[in-house]
Amino acid sequence: MDIIKINASLANAARYDILRWLKDPENNFPPHKEVSGFGDGVCVSFIKDKSGLSQSTISHYLNMMENAQLVIATRIGKWTYYKRNEATLAAYFKALQEEI
Amino acid sequence: MDIIKINASLANAARYDILRWLKDPENNFPPHKEVSGFGDGVCVSFIKDKSGLSQSTISHYLNMMENAQLVIATRIGKWTYYKRNEATLAAYFKALQEEI
DNA sequence: ATTACATATCGATATTTATAGATTTGATAA
DNA sequence: TTATCAAATCTATAAATATCGATATGTAAT
User: Domain residues of chain B, as ranges?
Assistant: First the structure.
């Protein structure tokens, strides 16, 4: 886990928002027609719609966040779903509190 | 308190290190000849020496961190001492845990 | 095979950040 | 009041980030 990389990921309001939205998908996104529930997270299009940013920007941001291990991507059919990586987040909080 | 601004401050290894060093000045810095103890923190020169970065860079970083309310500056004589702003740090941890 | 669609990648540009050297400012001491 | 020293600010450049439109890729349906 790279704390600096995580901090950089969270140093942008759009990405910070995405992480918060993914904490409560039911109340932040519509249901997906292909899957039931949000077990694998939320598809890129919904995140794009909610953020108001372009598809390429969101794809790039999600890739950054995956690289920082903040989210986990799962491809199902044509869609890629993103959910939070709670293990990293827990480790991040712990490390932050211990280190700084 | 601006979480994004704080995250940006902590998205750089040198600044992250500074905040950690200031947590334990006794073990990270020499005693200052003008003041006893580290009640007001550590002077810029010592932080510069330890970081290996230039004086202007460190001054700039400390200014950023002060702007994010991560540190508090106190000028005494020719020296400016920087210490952690524990109130912000506590509020930051709390907000982080609640929000993300 | 061809089409359609969701997402990823590429290429480009504007903005921000990282960093340093030079200069200025503020404070003390001679 | 001048010299000195610590720190802040200014100026400059290289690198990274933000963001988009265009194009490519992978998957599924026809």
Answer: 3-99
